[in-house]
Amino acid sequence: MEVYNFSAGPAMMPPEVVAQIQAELISYRDSEMSVMEISHRSALYEEMFQTAKADLRELLAVPKDYKILFLQGGASTQFTTIPLNLARKTKNIAFVDTGHWSQTAIADAQLVPERKVDVVASGKSSAYSRLPHEITLDKPYDYVHLTINNTIEGTMYRKLPELQGQTVVGDISSNILGYQHDVQKYGLLYASAQKNIGPAGLTLVIVKESLLDKEQDLPSMLDYVKLIKRDSNLNTPPVFPIYAAGLVFQWLKKQGGVKQMQQQNEAKTALLYEMLDNSKLFLGTAHAPDRSLTNVPFTTESKELDEKFITQAEANGLKNIRGHILVGGMRASMYNAFPIEGVEALVDFMKAFERKERP
Ligand code: PLP
Prior knowledge:
Blueprint: E1 4-5, H1 15-24, H2 43-60, E2 66-71, H3 74-86, E3 92-97, H4 100-110, E4 116-122, E5 143-147, E6 149-150, E7 155-156, E8 168-171, E9 188-192, E10 203-208, H5 224-229, H6 239-255, H7 257-277, E11 283-284, E12 295-299, H8 303-315, E13 318-319, E14 330-333, H9 340-357
Parallel strand pairs: 1-13, 3-4, 3-5, 5-8, 8-9
Antiparallel strand pairs: 2-10, 6-7, 9-10, 11-12, 12-14
Bound molecules: pyridoxal-5'-phosphate.
């Protein structure tokens, strides 16, 4: 039976990349050492890291005045690190509340001493099925934080709201490299790797260098200035996830880059959205203009039927289709490595299920 992994993360990786990793697990580049045993001070690592960084810069068209950091601690650690580094002038931060991950970022920013957090817009009244697009800012902020793709609620900003020229910080954990983000519109972008890049353990930060205070003196692992100075090699970096990410970047370049990925993600999600829009049983929960290109939550609006669907889908090779524990129902995550055949299999299965349940 063909198995398709709809997990929101850790998520499916390109099979070609997994096969290459398998080959190099025993001896990396004829070194007779496993890639997991390579020192972060070796020439082998340095070349691997610099190539990955350059490939990422090329794939995302990162301008020269932005620095790229390869960090640890997940996107969640950035919920603290960003306020420490970027909220230093007015110490005021504006957040747009678009659901669970923005709320988690808000809660952590509120714990950073001396920072004042304002929630300037919220999708709460629509149960986060809609994104706020009209945002009023009444005072200057050091930055405005937006969760660009909401992994749980299945919404994404295609176009940034008008933010009066204020610095924008974007969490792109669940659609980095799957959508053509215009880096220049942001002061900082961040993402963890385990959705659209590779194994968990790597977190990417892309920051406009001029926003940083060269005089700041923060604890080393939280200080972008120190981390940039040491080129993300201030402590032992996650060599294996960086290696795997580097292979994915090369794979992406061969596929035609982010533009091609976005087109494929549009095509994949269109199949599922079309099914949902025409279904008598299933309902997509996100408001159509705000729909994500990577995460699609849906439900039958009956807990029992949702359970039945999930159990039968799992038994038919459609794995990890259960919705997030906070929202229930189902969710299909279809990142870059996820094949269109998997979406076709899901849609066929949904149609068959619907015929049985709503003849
Ligand atoms: N932000 C978004 C949009 C996410 O989807 C997630 C995880 O799913 C996170 C942040 C947290 O990432 P991590 O688990 O790497 O800390």
